[in-house]
Amino acid sequence: MADDDYILRVEDIHKTYGDSEVLKGVSFNVRKGDTIVFIGPSGTGKSTLLRCINQLTVPDKGRVYLHEEEVTNCGSRINHFRQKIGMVFQNFYLFDHLTAVKNVEIALLKVKGMSPEEAREKALFELRQVGMEEWADHYPAELSGGQAQRVSIARALAMEPDVILFDEPTSALDPELTREVLEVMKKLALEGMTMLVVTHEMGFARSVATEIIFMEGGKILEAGTPEDIIKNPGSERTKSFIGQFSGNLGD
Amino acid sequence: MDVFSIVAEWLPYLLSGVMVTIGLVAAALIIGALLGLPMALGQVYGTRPLKMVIGTYVWFFRGLPVLLLLFLFYFTIFPFLNLDVPEFFVGATVLGLRGAAYQSQIFRGAIQSISEGQMTAARSLGMSRLTAIRSVIIPQAVRVALPGWSNEYPNILTDSAICYAIGVAELMTRTSQIVAQTYITMPIYLACALVFILLNYAGMRVIYHLEKRVAIPGFSGNTSSGVL
């Protein structure tokens, strides 16, 4: 397959914090419409890897390309690339001083330079996509965790990104709220959104992922389809990690 | 003539000092905020040399007695700069510059209290650092700062009386003039005290309403009942 089929290429990412090498050379490629789910024990660099893709964390070594344009070492062009690479955080990080709809609007106004009417219309459209239109005028503190996370997904969607990074989007949520967020994410995946998801939700990984990447110790240990990774893991380590989730693999 | 009619006779003169005092306080608060907020941003986001310059400024203006600052500016700095300005202007400048030092630290604390995630989220959407500071950090920090900032009003109001020392015709100066003219002390000082207390009360009400107006559900500042 030719390189230009990939919309995102990640090459040999290394990152060290002090004495600990968090990422020891991670590479993978993403096709349009892929949902790649990263699994693996905590502290293996999955979140750092996502942050290296949009340069919220600057990798020590390695390159990231979006549509064959280099995202790493691009200076202030990074603000252009970040519009194309959305991100959803574990703790939502909604802007606390803005209502739900204004959270979605603000980057449209300040980054994309839309008119207030255009931005409002777009924001309400995206809130509708995640089932939050009725809550448009509520402040983050008035929303449940699941609602807040759906607003933050709408905020990312509004920029019309080529790919969205989900950094443990449901780890701060109870099972019920987790479900409502995962449903939104599943819908996005089915609609063809390209997504990279760090999660411990194996049910989601199994039913939605086009590829599962198992990481440990700052490296990719194994990658493949959900079928491969969950049903027939190649390594003992993957097997034992997956095994811990048995009984939690349903949809 | 009895004491009350004398006090009543001089009251208009005393009260015409109210506008001067309010003018001093308003000018000082505005100068303080206009300088204090950028200084706070400089201290949090600036380069090392900038941080040092601001740190030195704060250290200087907080480290000297306000009366000394006033004399320093009135008798040396303004004359040295060949600026012949009204006493009111000198008083407002000194109170304002000193206020900026205090206000910068109020705003700095507020900016630093805003969680890292707010900046992270803003940057992840493609905002430049400057846009993020302007659209996300400052609107939140100013709200967080308000309760602490509200201290500045009574501080500056009471400090403004020091302008008596350079003859600005504010409340304290006029009070002393009336005392010197009438040899009546306690009733005049009490009248002056009453005016200060009322000014204080009125100002705190204004700030309280401001706090309520800009309050955001679940965001710090909205549960404030103030000192009233």
Summarize this structure as a short list of keywords or feature phrases:
heterodimer; A: 251 residues; alpha/beta; six-stranded mixed sheet; 9 helices; globular; B: 228 residues; mainly alpha; MetI-like fold; 79% helix
Concise description?
By secondary structure, chain A is α/β, with parallel strands linked by helices.
Rounded mean pLDDT of chain A is 93
Do you know the CATH architecture of chain B? Answer: Orthogonal Bundle
Beta-strand percentage range of chain A: 25-35%
SS elements, strand count of chain B = 0
Described by the principal axes of the CA atoms, the overall outline of chain A is globular
Structure class of chain A: alpha/beta
Q: Helix amount of chain B, in percent?
A: over 70%
Distance between the termini of chain B: 39 Å
Mean pLDDT metric of chain B: 92
Total of DSSP H or I helical runs spanning 4+ residues of chain B: 9
Describe what this molecule looks like in 3D:
The complex is a heterodimer of chains A (about 250) and B (about 230). Chain A is α/β, with parallel strands linked by helices and about 250 residues long. In chain A, about 35% of the residues lie in helices and about 25% in strands. Chain A has helices spanning about 45-55, 80-85, 100-110, 115-130, 145-160, 175-190, 200-210, 225-230, 235-245; strands at about 5-15, 20-30, 35-40, 60-65, 70, 85-90, 165, 195-200, 210-215, 220-225. In chain A, helix 3 packs parallel to helix 5 and helix 5 (about 145-160) runs parallel beside helix 6 (about 175-190). Helices cover about 80% and strands about 0% of the residues of chain B. Chain B is flat, with a radius of gyration of 21 Å. Chain B starts with a helix and ends in a 14-residue tail after the last helix. Chains A and B meet through helix 2, helix 3 and helix 5 of A and helix 5 and helix 6 of B.
